[in-house]
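The material for today's practical consists of a large collection of protein records. Read left to right, the backbone structure tokens trace the chain's path through space. An example says more than a description, so a record of this kind follows:
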Amino acid sequence: MSEAAGRVAPTRPAGRREQAKALKRGRILAAAQRRLASQGYEGMTMAQVAHDADVAIGTVFQYAATKPELLMMVAADRWSDAIPALIAQARDTDDPVEIILTLLSPLAQESARAPEVTMAIAREILFGVDGPHRREVVALVAQLEEAIAGVLTSHGAGAAAGTASTAARLIVSGGLIELNRTRTGLADGDPVEHRLRAMVELALAGARAGV
């Protein structure tokens, strides 16, 4: 083996590059979160986020190729810890309705805090163009659906596996649609939490009946 071949390639520069990328990503994410909180999704621009993060706009596009993908980047960051934690927390009660409402609570909380942004997130989950950050969010939503299906087959619900999976998808999709109706003014005057509860109770009754 030659001396050159026997050398170990240095890793420190690569580590510094990864650290620099992580710092830029963090600044972009924080800037997007601030703009969403202050201006909403429609008011936010990629140029504003780049300015606030102190990076070139091309750098923002490297981390999120489109404005919807930037929104999904923010949603994935918010939900990546919250949803697994809620799935674990939901095991502490035996009431299937309360368990499912606990699992849906990120949607209700987001709607109360920022209805316009939540509507945009719901729209992108349901109808958006595929992208890496949207795939992260869709995977988290799939975890919710799987957890809800598990509740529907246990905890006194007794739904068959196929029926439970279908009902879980309907519950999550219905919850996202309710968020959209809240923003567009098509919903009635009840708080979104009440409408989610009514939807869950109806879906649970149907799953138990095998509908």
